[in-house]
Amino acid sequence: MSTWNPWRGCHKKSEGCLHCYIHRADAGKRIDTNRIIKTDEFYKPIEKDAKGKDRIKSGQLVFLCFNSDFLIEEADEWRKEAWKMIRQRRDLHFLFLTKRIERFSIGLPEDWGEGYPNVSVCCTIENQVRADERLEIFRKLSIRHKMIIVQPMLEKIDIASYLDASIECVVVGGESGKDVRPLDFDWVLDLRRQCMENNVSFEFRQIGSIFIKDHTVYHVQKQFLGAQARKANINYTAVPASSTD
Questions:
Q1: How far apart are CA 67 and CA 65, in angstroms?
Q2: Using DSSP, how many helices (H) and how many strands (E) does the chain show?
Q3: Residue 201 contacts residue 195 (beta carbons within 8 Å)
Q4: What is the greatest pairwise CA distance in the chain?
Q5: Pairwise CA distance, residues 120 & 114, whole Å
Q6: Close Cβ partners of 63 (under 8 Å, ≥ 6 residues apart)
Q7: pLDDT truncated to tens, each residue of the chain (245 aa)?
Q8: Of 167, 232, 160, 235, which is closest to residue 202 (Cα–Cα)?
């Protein structure tokens, strides 16, 4: 696993961004998150080490733009070059999250076709309004590997109509930190049910710092959020198509 942040900075776009971890971290360092800048690791995928070997070793999963949004407006020109490097490094698999799926086609490579096989696109939603807004667009895009990220989950959400064979996984999680909005376990279980009924893989990534289960409110320290989600043991792996025939 590796990371690649060709640019940094982001703008809060919707309700899920209220307690954005990037903005919170930058505030502590007196960094203006709204200023989008190219980083010194822009060419990381094609850089070599002192021995002339690839800086990012072949076969790795590369988490792309986790300090920004790959589709952010200010990076339109930079993204053209980023796509070229992604195409060049077909031996790597790149994954990025976005709240700007409506901008996906801007600057898309001419040879994109049905999608590069080494790219996973994760459409992020947080409530029903954003689900209907973004997933309606997402379902129409030609992308080989699609995931839906419901984090932070802010309310009960119905996405059953968007769950088909093109969606490889739905990931859900709560919000972390102080003064965050709660995550109700009933919402998570309902989303899991939707995934199981449509044979789409489901992953409970983390509970929320404020977590409601059986009408009881729990306040959980950040370091335990992932472990508690795993302890729930509710992840679901889709049955291969050949097994359901």
A1: 5
A2: 6, 12
A3: yes
A4: 58
A5: 12
A6: 1, 2, 3, 4, 95, 96
A7: 999 999 999 999 999 998 888 888 888 888 899 999 999 999 999 999 999 999 999 999 999 999 999 999 999 999 999 999 999 999 999 999 999 999 999 999 999 999 999 999 999 999 999 999 999 999 999 999 999 999 999 999 999 999 999 999 999 999 999 889 999 999 999 999 999 999 999 999 999 999 999 999 999 999 999 999 999 999 999 998 775 55
A8: 235
Distance CA 132, CA 126 (A): 11
Q: Rounded to whole angstroms, how far apart are CA atoms 141 and 115?
A: 9
Instruction: State phi, psi for 24 to the nearest 5 degrees.
Output: -65, -45
User: What are 196's two structure tokens?
Assistant: 């199981």
Ranges of H-type helices in the chain: 21-28, 76-88, 128-138, 185-197, 225-232, 241-244
Residues 6+ apart with CB under 8 A from 28: none
DSSP string, 140-175: TS--SEEEEEE-S--S----GGG-STTEEEEEEE--
**What's the token pair of residue 113?**
């076709």
